[in-house]
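Collaborator request, handled under Task 6.
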Amino acid sequence: MDGLYEWRLKAPNGRVVAVSPAHFRTAQDAVSACAALRDDGADHLARILHEKKGIGWVWTVPGPHGRPLARSPRAYERYATCQGAFRNFIALLGTPPGEEEQAAAQA
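Structure tokens returned to the collaborator:
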């Protein structure tokens, strides 16, 4: 997007389970941000919010200075479904790189 990069974390079935809320100048910066998120995975808590516009619940992982480190790829109709989606994200972070998960920088 406009020469910037973002990362997307995919489940083994190809479904996107998390996206980067920020855009990065280089593909390597995007990969590094995703790797840092993975390395600290067990320490992350979700902030689940109801969308102001539209319907549904979204999760974010809060970071320093109020900037999110990761977010849900879409809104979920039910709060409990959003919680489950976040738990799936955390479980995927625990999977070693190169094994069924794909954290790829997308231009």
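The cover message to the collaborator said: "Residues 8 and 54 are 23 Å apart (CA to CA). Helices lie at 27-39, 79-93. Please let us know whether this matches your experimental observations."
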